[in-house]
Amino acid sequence: MQASTLPLPGDGSGPRVDPAVLGVLAAACRDRERLRLAYRDHHGSPGRRTVEPYRLVSWGRRWYLVAWDLDREGWRILRIDRVEPTTVTPTGQRFTPRELPEGGDLAAYVSRRVSAAAWRYHARVRVHAPAEAIRRQIPAAVGVVEAVDDETCLLHTGADTLETLAVYLGMLGADFKVGEPPELVARLRDLADRYRRATT
Length: 200
What we know:
200 residues; alpha+beta; SH3 type barrels; Alpha-Beta Plaits; 6-stranded mixed sheet; 4-stranded antiparallel sheet; 5 helices; 10 strands
């Protein structure tokens, strides 16, 4: 389990998963062994998957499996609480490791994909501050920070409301420029006018 698990910071909340399932998945990651399993997607629709498992990711009490889906021919992040425990079946077939997404940075890959799936609004922001300084303020569940140079970085983040995004950005303590979405640009202009009127 320890060798196959990548921990990410979280709030400790989430559905429980079967420890036996985690053990089977961890062993398959270690042994590079293909698995068959039944899985419910985010709409609750059941389906069968054949996957090459690479890594377990723990985020608070929520668990994910990073895997290559052979039927869909692409990388997938499967929530383990949506896996039917009795269907997890090692096939006995070994696989050759593929090139990992995000240049092998699975923490960034999972953080971006899992966080983004829950957001209504997504933002891409150029922040005029070193990437490390912004990373210290941005938990993995809130966004992904990419260095542009020694003094500038890109922040990929999001929220359910434009107001929440505006507040988070204002608390960074650095100048920033919003590239998208246009709704956020318009909301920030409205707020800037409101703050300007409040101080004259």
